[in-house]
Design brief:
Largest sheet: 3 strands, antiparallel
Structural class: alpha+beta
Strand content: 15-25%
Order of helices and strands: EEEEEH
Strand order of the largest sheet: 1-4-5
Number of strands: 5
Shape: flat
């Protein structure tokens, strides 16, 4: 979506807003839990106005580092090309 193309419908009608999607009243971002003292994390929200698909991206490099140290990493799954 950051490239201006919807990955679902291939539309080029994409709009972005910093903290455009909020969780909770007056949150100004989302809560990404990495400790008991979690603070609001800024995001960039992208929405395709043709199909309604949206994505959010965390823009705080320090928060991304905290996630890499406290969350469980999802390992890529092997798949057979014949299954596609």
């Amino acid at each position: 979506m950051r490239n201006g193309i919807c990955p679902k419908c291939r539309s080029k009608n994409i709009y972005m807003r910093k903290n455009g999607i909020q969780v909770g009243e007056n949150s100004g971002g989302v809560f990404v839990h990495t400790s008991t003292m979690t603070r609001v994390t800024p995001i960039e929200a992208y929405i395709c106005v043709d199909c309604g698909y949206f994505e959010n991206f965390i823009t705080d490099a320090a928060k991304l580092m905290e996630v890499s140290q406290t969350w469980t990493k999802v390992e890529p799954m092997a798949f057979d090309m014949d299954d596609l």
